[in-house]
Amino acid sequence: MKFTPEKCSIPDERMKPFIDPEEIWNLINNTKSTPERVRELIAKSLSKQRLTMEETAVLLNTTDPDLVEEIKEGARELKRLVYGNRIVLFAPLYVGNKCINNCQYCGFRSTNKEQIRTTLSDQELIDEVEALEETGQKRLILVYGEHPHYSPEFIAHNVKLVYDVKKNHGEIRRVNINAAPLEIEGFKTVKAAGIGTYQIFQETYNPDAYKTYHLGGKKMDFEYRLTSLDRAQEGGIDDVGIGALIGLYDWRYEVLGLIRHTNHLEACYNVGPHTISFPRIKDASELNIDGKYMVNDEDFAKLVAILRLAVPYTGMILTARETPALRKEVLQFGISQIDGGTKLEIGAYAETENDDQNLHREQFAINDSRSLNEIMDELIATGFMPSFCTACYRLGRTGEHFMEFSVPGFIKRFCTPNAILTLSEYLVDYAPAETAEKGWQLIEKELQSLHSAEEKINVTEIRNRIEQIKAGKRDLYF
Ligand code: SAM
Ligand code: SF4
After folding, report:
1. Nearest CA residue ID for atom 27, ligand 1
2. For 3-61, how does the pLDDT look when each residue is reduced to its tens digit (9 = 90+)?
3. Which position has the higher pLDDT, 287 or 257?
4. Which ranges of 382-452 would DSSP assign to H, the alpha helix?
5. Whether the predicted pLDDT of 271 surpasses 70
6. Contact at 8 Å (CB) between 188 and 236?
């Protein structure tokens, strides 16, 4: 799919900063929202076209409750039409919380003396992975503070260790990374270890606001961070994840920052971000922000719906920072990935008892501490198809994630069957009887609807593979 590049005030050159705050504020201040325009833009998105920054600003400036509801309905419709009902599950695995930076919102910051600094040893990492595999996880994101200890070689070593851990039928099939920006050589090193996505959040796209929150360490350099995913691309990582920490600055500005970043990656590398994240600030030990830009649930839901419509092809991640109720609501606006069974305390997955010291080993407080199976139960009950699929990445279908979006029938031919197969594995290996019963019913319903789909789907072949899974085969995918 080709995108028409949007003319921005700063030209897009590789490894060059691309954010112009004035351009963004001009769009927010001078763009009008009318019912006609809003409806036209929803229709544009539903016809699978990206929105420009100016068009996104129209949606951001929509305040009429009925029109906002139409935007949300547009996002729901896009999800139904394009993505179907599958939701990919993953777990974050915090490896180490040493940090040289002083980010005012983060419990890991260097000046937080309450924080107990820990880094998992090889054996502790293996224990964590085994514990996660025993719950059925197949996809992890390794998370690190920023510290010389967490070198590209160290991260690559961790990644290889994780892939080697096999517990019964358990294995991790995709390891993503959320860590400090690297140089191109460093990105090449972690890429060679077989990582999936490298995620780096800009936190805020406003350079002045950025300065006020980042008071020490390498992370103070706004532009170095802004161009980090360019270096990742130059280092051969074509699955990159962008994000803004919502609550540091005006959320409408951040949405346009994310769109501008997307434009930049498309213009320079012909591929947009693999995922967009929009974590909201949560309470953290020694949190030091004034709360002026905190975003309420209503605006947050609007933000998610607008992002969905603005970049219809990109994966959107919603984490356990949010409550179960809010997650349930915004899942419908086109979220594609959520975490389940999340624990942020370092070493907590392998721990059996609650440890008081945990309070001092986590980065921030989460709002959804349900187990993976509880989350699976809710997804199944609400008609979502939980998926642990890792097929595209393992078949080399990377950097072109929007294939699933732009290639007719891709979702029905690949994503849904792979969701069914990975859910089948889960039901056989990990699910309690009640979850299994409901899960098989959902799979049967899905197979029936694939059978009657216009595209030619080989339902017999899917059924055949399910039988193979029941007989003990694993890791079957299309
Ligand atoms: N140290 C690396 C970095 O800063 O890029 C790794 C990331 S940090 C462990 C993961 C992300 O958590 C940060 O990029 C930030 O967006 C988010 N985060 C930090 N403090 C938070 C808080 N109090 N509430 C919610 N999210 C937070
Ligand atoms: Fe360190 Fe990252 Fe936390 Fe900043 S957000 S203090 S860099 S762990």
Report:
1. 281
2. 566 789 999 999 999 999 999 999 999 999 999 999 999 999 999 899 999 999 999 99
3. 257
4. 391-394, 403-406, 410, 416-429, 433-451
5. yes
6. yes
State the Rg of the chain over Cα.
21
**DSSP characters for 312-361?**
TTSEEEE-TTS-HHHHHHHHTTT--EEE-S---STT-TT--S--GGGGGT
Substitution site in 112, 203, 245, 293 for ligand 1 pocket (most atoms within 8 Å of beta carbon):
245
Parallel, antiparallel or unpaired: strands 174-178 and 170-171 = unpaired
CA atoms 164, 197, 232, 251: torsion sign: negative
| Residue 203 alpha carbon to ligand 1 centre in Å | 8
- CA–CA separation, 379 vs 339, rounded Å? 12
With the most atoms of ligand 1 within 8 angstroms of its CB, the residue from 102, 106, 229, 282 to mutate is 106
The answer to whether 390 and 349 have CB atoms below 8 angstroms apart is no
Give residue limits of the domains in the chain.
Answer: 80-370, 392-470
From 340, 349, 350, select the one nearest 372 (Cα to Cα).
Answer: 340
Fold annotation for 80-370: TIM Barrel (3.20.20)
Closest CA to 384 of 69, 52, 85: 85
Q: Tell me: the pLDDT tens digits for 84-103?
A: 899 999 999 999 999 999 99
> What's the angle, vertex CA 22, arms to CA 58 and CA 267, rounded to 5?
75
Could you give the count of Cα atoms lying within 13 Å of 396 in the half-sphere of its Cβ? 0
Confidence band, pLDDT 50/70/90 cuts, at residue 142: very high
What is this structure's pTM? 0.96
Instruction: Looking at the CA of residue 214, tell me the nearest atom of ligand 2.
Output: 4
Average pLDDT of the chain is: 93
**Number of the ligand 1 atom closest to the C-alpha atom of 94:** 9
The ligand 2 atom nearest the CA atom of 107: 3
Q: How far apart are CA 284 and CA 270, in angstroms?
A: 38
